[in-house]
Amino acid sequence: MNRVGYGAMQLAGPRVWGFPDDPEAARRVLRLAVELGVTFFDTANAYGPRTVNQLIGQALGPAPEGVIVGNKVGAERGPDQSWIVDGRPETVRRQVREALTDLGTDVSELTYLRLVGDTPGAHQDVPLEESLGALAELREQGLIRRIGLSGASPQMLARAQRTTPIAAVQNRFNLLDRSGVQVLADCEAQDILFIPYFPLAAGRLSDHHELTGPAERLGAAPAQVALAWLLRRSPSVVVIPGTSSPDHLRSNIEASEIAERLTDTEVAHLTGLVDESKATLGRPTPSVQRHQ
Asked: Known catalytic residue: 47?
């Protein structure tokens, strides 16, 4: 797999809600990504909701040979556009089938279960084993090939592995936020893909001063260096920067080549900007709720 993938969340409208103003432009970007060698796309039923998956299905469905779409289930959107984590087996099963319809495919190459972590004030959890059990049943039925986790703590990953093999974990991790470092280490040890979301810290790395030196030496943009650092940080990492711009898409893909040109000294300096031994597991955003 090409280690620079594509995060599709930005293809929805404001607040990840609805369709983009120009759906055909979004479909062109998706098709261009495949033409440029992208082999991994990240999406979720909750984006839109469902509209991003529909755009991917219209542009790529069924996905070309060798292209993997990783889709997250276990989260809904409230009528007020809030995010609600819902891991009930009936919700998981329904969302997998909805995703297959929207993506225009008969089987999901990778389906993540969205975990709630430790959202303050939330309660009435659905046991992890029940949610994963529903996905495992769908895998036995041939509707899913691989199962992943989104927002996992080290303890949740270990618990999940006792229920079913986990192929990929998606946690927040970037140059400024190393909260997923413990899970990254576990993924490295267990040959699990680690897919950092917000790899560019929601745009905050586009002009970060610590990136300007390597960027100037390489004739690159700071954001490209930030992505390149992630690729050098661990061989388990696949990055999923998102964009609706063809030019930004090309720039993101070039990060793979830039990673090869970063010096070991530059990588070590950027890694040392955060004391990873003191990094703590990040929490979901306050707007995330549990189904009650």
From this structure: yes
CA angle, 177 as apex, 72 and 155 as ends, to 5°? 55
| Token pair for 99 | 């995703």
**Span 14-43, pLDDT tens digits:** 899 999 999 999 999 999 999 999 999 999
Buried b (16+ CB within 10 A) or exposed e, 28-54: ebbebbbebebbbbbbbbbbbbbbbbb
Distance of CA 130 to the CA centre of its chain: 23
The gap from C-alpha 80 to its chain's centroid, in whole angstroms, comes to 24
Nearest to 53 by CA among 30, 81, 35, 77: 30
The CA distance from 254 to 128, in Å, is 38
For 22-145, where are the E strands, in sequence order? 40-44, 68-73, 75-77, 83-85, 110-114
Q: What is the pLDDT of residues 240-266, one digit of tens each?
A: 999 999 999 999 999 999 999 999 999
- Whether a cis peptide bond, with omega within 30° of 0, leads into 23 is no
Question: What span, in angstroms and rounded, lies between the C-alpha atoms of 109 and 22?
Answer: 28
Catalytic option among 6, 47, 112, 197:
47
Q: What is the dihedral of CA 182, 184, 187, 193, to 10 degrees?
A: 160
Query: pTM of this prediction?
Result: 0.93
